[in-house]
Amino acid sequence: NAGVTQTPKFQVLKTGQSMTLQCAQDMNHEYMSWYRQDPGMGLRLIHYSVGAGITDQGEVPNGYNVSRSTTEDFPLRLLSAAPSQTSVYFCASSYLWAGYTEAFFGQGTRLTVV
Amino acid sequence: KNEVEQSPQNLTAQEGEFITINCSYSVGISALHWLQQHPGGGIVSLFMLSSGKKKHGRLIATINIQEKHSSLHITASHPRDSAVYICAAAYSGAGSYQLTFGKGTKLSVIP
C-alpha cells in the first residue's frame, strides 16, 4: 500500500515558469487537498477536492490550478511561478468525513522560485 | 474563521521527561488531529479524536470539547521523539471539511 505519493521532492523554477506537482493515492479516498507550509505559519489550504470532477478553492488559491479527473490523482499546477510561491507543498488525502478519520500526507515538495 | 493556537512554540527536554504540548481552537470542530513532522520529512498522523482520550505507546492525546482545548503528552521522552508536532482542527460543512493548522511545536529531546 503506497499511501500518498507526491513528486517531485525538490524543484527549482525560474520566475514565470510553469510546472505541475503530482499527487496520487491508492486508498480510494474521496477527499484530496494541497497545502503550503511557510516558516512561522501553519499549513494553509490551497485547493481541495471531494471527488472526481469536483474541486474548490482554499485559503490561498491564487497562482495555482487543480483538476481531479480520477479518484487517484490530484495534480497542482503553478501557472507562472513567482518567488512568493517558494514553499514546501504537501498533498493529503482522506475519506470524506475526515472530521472523523485519519488524514494521510505525502512526503512534501520543496519548491524554490528564483 | 477557526483559529488554532499551539504552545509552546519550542520545547527542549531531557530524555525521560514527561512532555505536554497544548492546542486551543476558537470555534466548534468535528475533530482534532495531532500530526508529527520530522526534519526534512513528511507529515504523519498520530491521533484523530473528537472526545475523551486516546493512547498509542508512549503518546497520549486528550481533548476537552467544552474548553476547546487538546493536549498531547509524551511519557518517558526519547531523542527519537524530536520532531515538530502539529495540531489541526477539522471543521465540517456543506458536505466537506477543512483543516486549520497550528504553527507547530518544535520538540528537541536531549540524551
What does the secondary structure layout of this molecule look like, with pairings?
The complex is a heterodimer of chains A (114) and B (111).
Chain A: E1 4-7, E2 10-13, E3 19-25, E4 31-37, E5 44-51, E6 54-57, E7 64-66, E8 76-78, E9 87-94, E10 104-105, E11 109-113
Parallel strand pairs in A: 2-11
Antiparallel strand pairs in A: 1-3, 3-8, 4-5, 4-9, 5-6, 7-8, 9-10, 9-11
Chain B: E1 4-7, E2 10-14, E3 19-25, E4 31-37, E5 43-49, E6 52-56, E7 59-64, E8 69-74, E9 83-93, E10 96-101, E11 105-110
Parallel strand pairs in B: 2-11
Antiparallel strand pairs in B: 1-3, 3-8, 4-5, 4-9, 6-7, 7-8, 9-10, 9-11
Summary, kept brief:
The complex is a heterodimer of chains A (114) and B (111). Chain A has 114 residues and is mainly β. Chain A has no helices and eleven strands.
Report on the structure:
The complex is a heterodimer of chains A (114) and B (111). In chain A, 0% of the residues lie in helices and 48% in strands. With 114 residues, chain A is mostly beta strands. In chain A, strands 2, 4, 5, 6, 9, 10 and 11 form a 7-stranded mixed sheet that branches. Chain A has a 4-stranded antiparallel sheet with strand order 1-3-8-7, with no helix packed on it. The N and C termini of chain A lie far apart (36 Å). Chain B is mainly beta and 111 residues long. In chain B, strands 2, 4, 5, 9, 10 and 11 form a 6-stranded mixed sheet that branches. Chain B is globular, with a radius of gyration of 14 Å. The chains are: A mainly beta (114), B mainly beta (111). At the A-B interface, strand 4, strand 5 and strand 10 of A face strand 4, strand 5, strand 9 and strand 10 of B.
